[in-house]
Amino acid sequence: MENAFAALERRLAAAEDRLEIIDLEAEYCRAWDSGDTKGWADVFAPDGVFEITKSGDQPTRLVTGTKELAGFCAEVSEYYQGLHFNTAPRLRIDGDMAWGQVHFQWIGICRAGATHSGQRYAAGYYQVTYRRLEIGWRIERRVEIQISGNIVEAFEPVIAGMSRDAFRKS
Hints:
The chain is of the alpha+beta class. 34% of the residues lie in helices and 47% in strands.
């Protein structure tokens, strides 16, 4: 029979692993939502993968490795600013590997040009594989499955070459 201290140590280690992964998920959101490209790429293993599955007219997109991940975050952050609303992950941990599912909502705005803005909403879930490295838990693979989403665009009218402000003054 396992002694009480060994059992307690095992349970404490399991709780610490779970909390570290939950913190990793919180950092994923913080880094992405604030445009911290390095911080977002660093939540992944150096060979980590982020995959967005095909949704509507949007093709599957696969981003692999620290450099590509940081570049992808920078690319999207130039166009969109928004916030993630994620659930705590449903986790299964086995040694140095873990698997989880995280449900999300993301609401963002974009400014595509001087007379073009938009708002985007997406909801779905992530299927995530985590791996423990020497530096701690990291995301090995994250697959985004979007269940619903919409984009609302707004255009300022340009009438006969005049801006809306110029039109109002005429």
